């Protein structure tokens, strides 16, 4: 069942005239993020999130909502200013961890349909009521509370009790994986349309209407019974250890995945991005793996796919940064099922920068959209006839101190009770061939397909 957003959720004002935003942090013994996520099931089971960056130096879990920020029009600017207004009324002590805003943007607000994405607005962010953050070996649990009521102190006492209850459950119960339900059906949706789309895109490119366009498709799984959200996160985090992990739950649905691709990180005034485009399988032996990596590094089609992304991200960084570092040639980025061409980009940010402006400038990179951007988006709308929802969009967090990180939400799927929709695509350039691109999408489906127990296409 798809739950529509309530009016309250759509219109929660970021700040009223008398709003105050309190935060309070407790440092605790090590906690498993998944155990904390699961501890929130009974009371906050419809509003949770989960995040770990690729090197696992930052882990975040959110339970419940201190507030929800959504936006349709001018969505990047709107979320940025709603968050800035909240940070203005933040009351925090030095020992308190900066509260986080977590969420994401859909790939393209112009492709809405009456489909599996109807509970997800074009931008959805939440400040969690209870926030777990693990950073540099330390574990912090914070309460975030936004109120216009004068009796905040009394409310806070009740929240402290609730926080202690959650910590206790997470520490005592740990997370136990109870297995996953069987897949009773696995269907590829509109594969013919996908094959045609790849074909058409190569003709558009030959006619010089575009240079590169990313085309995606989806598959649907049906389970014999409900797939528990924590179980999905458990399997994907264990199976794809080198990737970013994310889960964003709205009502009955959770968008989740394991992506290798950073969109942008801001840390202490520096910005970091990554160009990830161009792909080949992992080898079955280390020699084969190395050989495939070398093939990828030399392959003309893949290098072309990659270079569009490097050019575009470099251009954005040149605009927003006072200094810039980009390698001349790509390296390999290897995750469990696939290896990619990879070029990191970093720079020193010009002063008054906020992460949402950078996300807006970068999204979509040619790793998910194409070149030129607007023409590629038009072709994607026309050819895919599908709402990508949050697949391929930016997902991540920002804090009240101006730090944050967004990943590109690929290798992802939407889990809705007994069903899941999985998405994968690839960059189409002049010499792309439909059958090869189709095979590449199967490799990209693997992380979520494996986590959910679907049939891999090997
Ligand atoms: C569009 C996807 O991957 C992108 C990211 C890395 C490599 C890609 C490629 O080689 O085609 C894609 O541009 C996806 O995983 O669904
Ligand atoms: Mg590709």
From TrEMBL:
<dbReference type="InterPro" id="IPR015890">
    <property type="entry name" value="Chorismate_C"/>
</dbReference>
<protein>
    <recommendedName>
        <fullName>isochorismate synthase</fullName>
        <ecNumber>5.4.4.2</ecNumber>
    </recommendedName>
</protein>
<keyword id="KW-0413">Isomerase</keyword>
<comment type="similarity">
    <text>Belongs to the isochorismate synthase family.</text>
</comment>
<feature type="domain" description="Chorismate-utilising enzyme C-terminal">
    <location>
        <begin position="192"/>
        <end position="444"/>
    </location>
</feature>
<dbReference type="InterPro" id="IPR004561">
    <property type="entry name" value="IsoChor_synthase"/>
</dbReference>
<dbReference type="InterPro" id="IPR005801">
    <property type="entry name" value="ADC_synthase"/>
</dbReference>
<dbReference type="Pfam" id="PF00425">
    <property type="entry name" value="Chorismate_bind"/>
</dbReference>
């Amino acid at each position: 069942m798809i739950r529509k957003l309530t009016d309250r959720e759509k219109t929660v004002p970021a700040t009223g005239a008398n709003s105050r935003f309190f935060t309070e942090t407790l440092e605790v013994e090590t906690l498993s993020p998944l155990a904390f996520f699961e501890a929130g099931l009974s009371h906050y089971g419809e509003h949770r999130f989960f995040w770990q960056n690729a090197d696992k130096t930052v882990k975040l879990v959110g339970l419940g909502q201190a507030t929800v920020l959504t936006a349709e029009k001018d969505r990047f600017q709107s979320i940025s200013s709603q968050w800035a207004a909240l940070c203005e009324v933040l009351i925090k002590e030095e020992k308190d961890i900066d509260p986080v805003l977590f969420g994401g943007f859909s790939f393209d607000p112009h492709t809405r349909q009456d489909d599996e994405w109807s509970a997800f607005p074009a931008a959805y962010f939440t400040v969690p009521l209870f926030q777990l953050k693990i950073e540099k070996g330390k574990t912090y649990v914070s309460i975030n509370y936004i109120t216009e009521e004068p009796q905040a102190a009394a409310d806070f006492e009740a929240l402290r009790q609730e926080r202690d209850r959650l910590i206790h459950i997470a520490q005592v119960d740990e997370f136990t994986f109870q297995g996953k339900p069987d897949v009773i059906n696995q269907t590829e949706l509109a594969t013919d349309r996908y094959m045609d789309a790849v074909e058409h895109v190569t003709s558009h490119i030959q006619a010089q209407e575009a240079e590169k366009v990313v085309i995606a498709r989806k598959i649907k799984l049906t389970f014999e019974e409900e797939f528990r959200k924590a179980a999905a996160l458990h399997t994907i985090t264990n199976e794809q250890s080198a990737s970013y992990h994310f889960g964003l739950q709205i009502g009955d649905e959770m968008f989740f995945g394991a992506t290798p691709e950073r969109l942008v990180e801001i840390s202490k005034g520096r910005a970091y991005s990554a160009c990830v485009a161009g792909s080949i399988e992992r080898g079955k032996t280390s020699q084969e793996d190395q050989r495939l990596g070398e093939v990828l590094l030399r392959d003309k089609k893949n290098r072309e796919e990659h270079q569009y992304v490097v050019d575009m991200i470099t251009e954005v960084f040149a605009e927003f940064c006072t200094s810039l570092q980009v390698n001349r040639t790509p390296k390999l980025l290897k995750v469990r099922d696939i290896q990619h061409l990879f070029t990191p980009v970093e720079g020193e940010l010009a002063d008054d920068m906020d992460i949402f402006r950078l996300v807006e400038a970068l999204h979509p990179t040619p790793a998910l959209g194409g070149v030129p951007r607007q023409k590629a988006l038009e072709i994607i709308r026309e050819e895919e006839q599908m709402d990508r929802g949050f697949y391929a969009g930016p997902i991540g967090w920002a804090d009240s101190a101006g730090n944050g990180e967004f990943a590109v939400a690929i290798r992802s799927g939407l889990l809705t009770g007994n069903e899941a929709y999985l998405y994968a695509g690839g960059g189409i350039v002049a010499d792309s061939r439909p059958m090869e691109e189709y095979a590449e999408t199967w490799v990209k489906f693997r992380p979520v397909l494996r986590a959910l127990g679907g049939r891999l296409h090997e």
